Amino acid sequence: MEPVTDQAFAAALYSDGDAGLDTGASLLAADPTADAELFRRGEEFVRRAWERGWQPADVVRLVRRDLDETAACLAAGLIVSETARYERLPPRWRAQLDGLPDAPPRNRPDRFSYASAVLGLYRLLLRLPAIEPVGPPPGVAPHGLHLPPAHDEPRMLTRIRALLAKAEATGFPEEAEALTTKAQELMARHSIDEALLAARTHSKEAPGACRIGVDAPYETAKAILLDAVAAANRCRAVWNSDLGFSAVVGFEPDLDAVELLYTSLLVQGTVAMTKAEAGQRAGGRKRTKTFRQSFLMAYAQRLGSRLAADTARVTAAAEAGTGAGPAAAGDPDLLPVLAARDMAVTDTAERMFPETTTTRVRGATDLDGWTHGTAAADRARMGGNGPELRGGHGRR
Q1: What CA–CA distance (Å, rounded) separates 6 from 14?
Q2: What is the pLDDT of residues 238-289, one digit of tens each?
Q3: Confidence bin at 127 (pLDDT 50/70/90)
Q4: 212, β-bridge pairs
Q5: Which helix (H) or strand (E) holds 212?
Q6: According to the model, what pLDDT value does residue 389 have?
Q7: How far, in Å, CA of 80 to CA of 323, rounded?
Q8: What is the dihedral of CA 25, 31, 33, 34, to 10 degrees?
Q9: Are 54 and 131 in contact (CB under 8 A)?
Q10: What's residue 219's pLDDT?
Q11: Which 8-state DSSP code applies to residue 102?
Q12: Which pLDDT band, with edges at 50, 70 and 90, does 318 fall under?
């Protein structure tokens, strides 16, 4: 006789309706001996996701978006169990695993509900598309594109993270501006120092990549903001609107900087937007959605040009020998070194995503939202380029 798990999977995983899920859940709920096999098969689905280019945070983010928090917690439990079997995990995976939600108790609130949730999760995992990998799968030694972070990154990142945390927490716009500007300057200087060090030591380091979630609502504005942050930090961002993330390509120190700064600026922008919206609503306005969309679009666009200006200023100071750090003595070879790294990043991005497209984004429609968003970006000391955005799906 066919095992119960196979019967349940045949009913639930290869159909779209709720009737199949109910049938499969009923079969599993009636047979407690199937529990161990059900969990083992879930680990197999997770392992297949790694083979298709997915990483732990990607899987949980998509499950949370397309199903619910319960399913995301179920996925997290499978991921933690499956990855425990590896002696070696790729760079960035440990931080992703540490950020996963706790797995719920099995068979709660009852066997049928639990089995139904598990089968819904497995149906989604089964249909995950192959995407361009941004690192090796677990158990494989990093090489080429996927080198671990440099030895001195944690100290620098700790300092930058502290500055951004203060910028997010302060209630004074001028202080937030100064702190965020200082963080971007540290990022730019660290990037320059790493580039010069790599050139002098003839390092074989190549660009790597990471994924950063771009969640609804207002994901277009958020993707533009991430694109601006990436460009200012010598990276390339490719947005996958269908799957809700951007792949960012760059050298390791720059990737960490992009992730930190984007997250902080999004927090700062959201806080500023909420305050501005409260003022608008107090005045009798009710067009919340258009106000928010226009606010974030203006915020993202304004930030791009300011970020780029900050990076250009630090680069010019380093070239002239008036900056800080190892580049303070000046280096006539700095611009060729940076140009070579920019070309390496561009070549890597184009090789990883050969079928990207450029999309012209619809303009903002709320003048008040645009005005307030521009002002918030000015206070955060950052700004954006035009409304064009690279996008692609990175499928293999």
Answers
A1: 12
A2: 999 999 999 999 999 899 999 999 999 999 888 888 888 877 777 676 667 8
A3: very high
A4: 246
A5: strand 208-213
A6: 41
A7: 45
A8: -20
A9: yes
A10: 92
A11: P
A12: confident
Q: What gap in Å lies between CA 269 and CA 392, rounded to an integer?
A: 26
Tokens of 137: 């799968």
Residue 375: Cβ within 10 Å count:
17
Nearest to 237 by CA among 267, 266, 207: 207
Cβ-in-10-Å burial (0-12, 13-18, 19+) of 349 comes to buried
Q: What is the DSSP string of 17-37?
A: SHHHHHHHHHHHHT-GGGHHH
Distance CA 253, CA 233 (A): 10
Contact present, 276 and 295 (Cβ < 8 Å): yes
Q: Which residue has the tokens 């969640």?
A: 215
Q: What is the DSSP string of 220-241?
A: HHHHHHHHHHHHHTT-EEEEET
Do the beta carbons of residue 383 and residue 310 sit within 8 Å? no
The pLDDT score that the predictor gives to residue 364 is 56
Which tens digits make up the pLDDT trace of 185-213? 888 888 888 888 888 888 888 999 999 99
> In this structure, how many other beta carbons lie within 10 angstroms of the beta carbon of residue 172?
10
How far apart CA 99 and CA 226 sit, in angstroms, is 21
CA 380 to chain centroid? 21
- Residue 143's pLDDT band (boundaries 50, 70, 90)? low
The C-alpha atoms of residue 148 and residue 153 are separated, in whole angstroms, by 10
Q: What is the pLDDT of residues 373-389, one digit of tens each?
A: 666 666 664 333 333 34
Question: Token pair 């995407």 is at which residue?
Answer: 131
- The closest of 106, 345, 355 to 205, measured between CA atoms, is 345
- In angstroms, the CA 188 to CA 229 distance is 12
Phi, then psi, of 205 in degrees rounded to 5: -60, 135
φ, ψ for residue 392 (rounded to 5)?
A: -170, 170
Angle at 214 between CA 212 and CA 216, to 5 degrees: 155
